[in-house]
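Data deposition worksheet. Section B asks for the primary sequence of the deposited chain exactly as it was used as input, without tags or linkers unless they were present during the calculation. Section C holds the resulting structure in token form. Section D is free text for depositor observations; keep each observation to a single sentence. Incomplete worksheets are returned to the depositor.
Section A, Depositor: J.P.
Section B:
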Amino acid sequence: MDARIKILPDLVMKRIAAGEVVERPASVVKELLENSLDAGASSISLIVRDAGSGLIKVVDDGCGMSSEDAALCCERHATSKVYTSEDLETISTLGFRGEALASISSVARMEIVTCRQNDSESSRLIYEDGSVVERLKTAPRRGTAISVKDLFYNQPARRKFLKAPSTELRHIISVFRHIAIAFPAVEFELIIDDERTYDLRAADRKQRILDLLSSAQAHTFIPVEKTIGSVSLQGLISRPGSGRKSKQNQLFFLNNRFITDRSLSHAVMTAYGTRLSRNEYPDYFIFLTIDPSRVDVNVHPTKIEVRFLDSRLVYDTVRRAVADGLRTPAVVPELQLVPGKISGARRAAARMRNPEEMGQLTLEAQRQAVGSAPVVDFRSGSRERPPFWQLHDTYILTQIKSSLVLIDQHVAHERILYEKALASLEDKRGISQQLLFPQSVQLDAGEFAVLTDMLPYLNDIGFTVREFGKNTVIVEAVPVTMKNGTEKELLLDMIDMYREESGGSDAVTEKIAAVYACKAAVKAGDPLTLQEMASLVDQLFSTKEPYFCPHGRPIIINLTLEEINKKFGR
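Section C:
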């Protein structure tokens, strides 16, 4: 009886390997560019035709290969980068498996022209079906040029499953951009269908990123840097409010290798927290440097997924670097209020105010409604200019140099109360005010169970809540910054939020503080006196982040004098 188990022919094995390594034209681009970089190239050209299915050609000025190495480089598992099993523990090159060229040559017509610096001639080898069909000698030119033509010509089924040319081209450009960003000191050129798409000169990392982005994005980035233990990080992140609707520019690089990692993406988004508006995705370019012995890059055929020995440390480094960057003055332009005619006593009080004393606005203070102010007499020789105006009992207006500033009173007060609540949760010393008439709140069984878990957080903010019968609680005291009459609504909102979060995490405390601040803040439609507006603005600019509310909405909008003049046709 004939044996059913047989050793696969070499060509079949190569094509199976190619199925893992060469998914599409962009896979070929990635492997060839990485080989050029490993060869020490300082200048690399990528030429593409017909979205890569017709031609992919990479020309570099690297170290080149001898004729013997050129003949061996397309054999399976032939590599100059790994020699022993110990070498796998400290991989510092982009490529190392020795499968790329073997796989590519088995599914395309490939030509290699290569020459070392002191060789008198270049070696030229032509491959089909993974084997050399012709060997030639040509004039010397240091470096290597590899041409890949008619990709999947011998696998019509694979060729049929390629996406539309525009899609495949988009993937090629994406791979090119990732590698160009990782190696800014290398000159890169991309020519698509005989048109030069990119011509990148050697630059620093920031300039290389800006060279690949539109000019409109150039001013939106914040530099970040952090070193914790064995992990070093540098990068650029976008300002809140300047993000995009896609994740195209969310990039991680590990030791100059582009990687994808959901955990690290989560670290970035956690650091942004509530600063982002709905459906906004921040741009970030984050470069990690870690000892190669503490990283396993050999966990995925395309080498874009890695495994960290200290995954928690890497996560914390990313999160803290981004969070620190978002707290810097670079997040937003500095606002300098134009000095108005403010009394000396109030100016002195503003200077003496402790930034930590951020509490409730005195909404019941004696007020003169802004809307009832007398009509301005333009014939008068002298007028006192009010420093603030209230628009529709919703927005506070003031002027800065060359701009008109609009402040949303609700989200401004929300930011003040949010930071106050966070401080109380951290110090566990929230200030309470006793209710004259304690409020009874009836809950269902599920809500009551959640509220029991939440009580430590509520107590830290300043609530006093005690059990009163089955699934019923009595609210005896609330934070001093909270309006009476909203106890039940606030508790139910907090319960709904808490159900969606894991107990004890930083995200829970931030969400609790955000919900509390939203419910306790002044609302759109509440009239404010000049004194209350001034107090709100002063307290706002004493916060750590006065430009975005806890939910990511902008607090302040600038209308430049230039924009206003344009509206009036000046």
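Section D:
The longest strand covers residues 432-442.
Residues 409-427 form the longest helix (19 residues).
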